[in-house]
Amino acid sequence: MTLTRSLPTKALSIRQPWAWLIVNGHKDIENRTWATRFRGPVLIHAAKGMTRLEYSAAALVFQQAGIQHRFPLAEELQRGGIVGMAEVTACVPPERRTSYWHMAGCQGFALRGAQPLPFTPLAGRLGFFAVPADVLSQIIQNQ
Predict the structure, then answer these.
(1) CATH 2.30.130.30 fits 10-141, yes or no
(2) Contact 129, 82 (CB under 8 A)
(3) Of 29-33, 64-68, 104-108, which range is least confident?
(4) Which of 76, 78, 128, 137 holds its CA 20 to 30 A away from the CA of 52?
(5) What is the 3-state secondary structure of 22-37?
(6) Cis geometry, peptide bond prior to residue 17 (ω within 30 degrees of 0)
(7) Of 100, 81, 77, which is closest to residue 31 (Cα–Cα)?
(8) What is the mean pLDDT of the chain?
């Protein structure tokens, strides 16, 4: 796989299986309790934590959306590192939500151009965070 854009230097940590849904082009909104002015490409980091309840809830939403794709088993989901990238194009307030994935009462970070990347281990952080240069180099080498 080759990168279709320059590699972002910022990342956003998202719990699985939501990160998988984003990087595989199924989910076009990331829900947050806070708004952002950030726009542009971002690496998608899969957080280490994932409960059975989170997995089951996402699987149900996936099924209800009628997506004709196999939903991964919980043990197939990579966690604790970079799994892909996408572009943040807007922050949609809850009263203007139109996406199936935009939850009531949440700010929705509108995403486009998502693509998976080879897994690269990295500890996550809250909010948008800078990715160290050595990790960026490792992502490029994994291509």
Answers:
(1) yes
(2) no
(3) 64-68
(4) 128
(5) HHCCCCCEEEECCCCC
(6) yes
(7) 100
(8) 93
